[in-house]
Amino acid sequence: MKYLEIFGRNFILIIIAAIAIYSIFLVVSDINLVYDTLSNFDWKFFPLILIIIFCSWLILFVRWEIILRSYKIHLPVKDNLLIYLAGSTFAITPVKSGELIKSVLLKNKFDVKRSVSAPLILTERIYDVVGTITIALTAIVFLGLDYLPVIFVAIAITFFVVFSIYSKSSFDYFLRLIKKLRFLRRFHASLENSHDILRSSLNKKTVISSCVLTVSYRLLEAVGIYLILLSLGIDVVSYFELASTYSMSVILGAISMSPGGIGVTEGSFAGLLALHGLEFSTALVVAVIVRFFTLWYAVIVGFIALRLSRGLNVNTN
Known about the structure:
Number of helices: 15
Helix content: over 70%
Order of helices and strands: HHHHHHHHHHHHHHH
Shape: globular
Number of strands: 0
Distance between the termini: 8 Å
Radius of gyration: 19 Å
């Protein structure tokens, strides 16, 4: 399977669109301000930030292992880690739907049926939403009740997804929506008979451990983000305020259904930072820098892992 077949034209268009959006953000912020902000970056924090963000992904990898083992799928840790990280290549797709590439890699390398792996990957997204909402709920304490409607919308979407899993008719409707999306259409057949697998993967033990790990991931990621702000000489927000603020921005980005939440997540994060007293132009620059570490760093590592996994070199359909 060629890489071009996997990435396609839309993937390139997303990157071009991201560059355009970031360019607009930086122009709005003023080029001189961008230069001054980057000049203030304390590079001694750089390796520590990279390590912390990477370690946060390892927490999600443990969650991935638990989800696979809940369906009695046992893989070599090294290969499984590469496959998991490779999914981050498509973190810039709407609600990370492109991470279904892991289903292709599992089939090619270990002959795990897509009809089994694809629904397990979808359960990851459910845990992502639940964990992020849990952290974002604390935003009400710091930001007031004005943001309660956003959280209610996110909770409503979560309940809709869970209900879709437990209701066969709702699940069939969800599949019809997937069939209309060109990028996800290839996975429709894999998901068509996956209703029972999804239900069985949401057992009590797996749900509790996965939700706890997701919250732990968000909290550790927030440590990395907090260090980014400190490295820029910015100390206008506490750690817990920052964790809830960033989680709120992630939810807004997910609800927007924009690829990777690009534009919406950065803009809302900058706006929320501005509420804490940071000048909005500076906040925009900070938001773009934070997203480099939390989004584009993952995409870069994903590319490397995808190459090392050799999962696309196997000549299978």
